[in-house]
């Protein structure tokens, strides 16, 4: 269910800083039309830490309603408090979602055993498929491959990991050691071509918000070992993708979506819109259809 291209959806805002639901609907439609295989609601790209509890639930419910089962919907549920994570699980309409993306506990730097027990608690509290999320550049904590494999072997509903360490040897170790049914997914848009070559099964992408058609085609070619076609699209997209992250995420992707007429160029503090120089670079580099 979670192979191929997932998209970590942005949360568009109006100029008065409220959630822009019509724009969110347009982005959902555009990503599905572009070929994404599943959607991720309430991830980091969605500026979820800036949303109230009520807004988080409303955004998730809107995405579920608007998607109308056209593709699976995964919801981000993670916390540095295990109990807070479990409380969130109870607050969302879990009967309607298709899976959970759960980030490693951040800031408090648990041991590998603490990480294992954290995700054990989640796996035992739900029967939904769980995608672990390893992004040590944000969380400080690195979920090591042996911990991932232990979780995958012990809990049948832990089915995948979004691996965003950028560490290719660690990715190789994950692919080599993980059960055959377990999906190792990329969290780095500019690495997915190389990671598909070593056996990773897809990506949860930021760039697919704004460059879905080319990005999904590139991933599909790579997963089918059509490397010449994949490489051509990779280099077409490489500079545009790198610019999306030049001043943080989702700063770049929101400006690209604004240029496409899909949402306002508004972020909630502490994030701010792209600088005028980055705006020029993104505008000049946007891939042509």
UniProtKB/TrEMBL annotation:
GO molecular function annotation: 4-hydroxy-tetrahydrodipicolinate synthase activity
Subcellular location: Cytoplasm
Gene3D superfamilies found in the cross-reference section: Aldolase class I
SUPFAM superfamilies referenced in this protein's UniProt entry, alphabetically: Aldolase (SSF51569)
Single GO biological process annotation from the record: lysine biosynthetic process via diaminopimelate
Subunit relationships: Homotetramer; dimer of dimers.
Protein purpose: Catalyzes the condensation of (S)-aspartate-beta-semialdehyde [(S)-ASA] and pyruvate to 4-hydroxy-tetrahydrodipicolinate (HTPA).
Protein name as catalogued: 4-hydroxy-tetrahydrodipicolinate synthase
Organism in which the protein naturally occurs: Taibaiella chishuiensis
Encoding gene, per UniProt annotation: dapA
